[in-house]
Amino acid sequence: MTERVGQRKPDKRTRLVEGARLVLHQQGVEKTTLADIAEAADVPVGNVYYYFKTKDDLVRAVIDAHGRDIESILASLDRHRTPKARLKALVRALADQGELAARFGCPHGTLCSELDKRDDDLAGAGVRLMQLSIDWAEKQFREMGRRDARDLAVAMIASYQ
């Protein structure tokens, strides 16, 4: 995480969430330690517990951050006039992540896939990330008059994953 000239360094909580996003994407939830996250965030490992009681709490914060990003990206696509143009813009946005996805997988999809294997409340929390994109795409297909909008949305997002 680099600091830009003239900008304040983000607070420790923000740095921990951003560091966790990076490390969890590269290593996965199970292989990542709080020490790995603290190092990526440039925060002393002892400080992690001040902001997050458990690793799962930090993972929840990462899920929430991913959710806000997805919502922001999808909202930005509303500037396109037609549902077809919005869907094409989403495909372009996903394609722009191609190199990152090829290297470590989709940041949202890999997290959801790993959390889905768990038998706790984090499994359900991760589902929200996929649901946001699928619901948005379904709305676009429905506006185009497609009765199979849900199936098309699922297929579109699944094909990227």
What is the structure about, briefly put?
The chain is mostly helical and 161 residues long. It is built from nine helices and no strands.
What can you see in these coordinates?
- Helix content is about 75%, strand content about 0%.
- The protein is built from nine helices and no strands.
- Helix 1 crosses helix 2 (about 35-40), helix 1 packs across helix 4 and helix 5 packs across helix 8 (about 120-145).
- The relative contact order is 0.11.
- The model has no long low-confidence stretch (mean pLDDT about 90).
Write the layout of secondary structure elements.
Elements: H1 12-27, H2 34-41, H3 45-51, H4 55-76, H5 83-96, H6 98-104, H7 107-116, H8 121-143, H9 149-160
Helix content: over 70%
Element-by-element helix/strand order: HHHHHHHHH
What's the number of helices? 9
| Mean of pLDDT | 89
**Regions with little confidence, pLDDT below 50 for 5+ residues:** none
Features:
single chain; 161 residues; mainly alpha; 9 helices; elongated
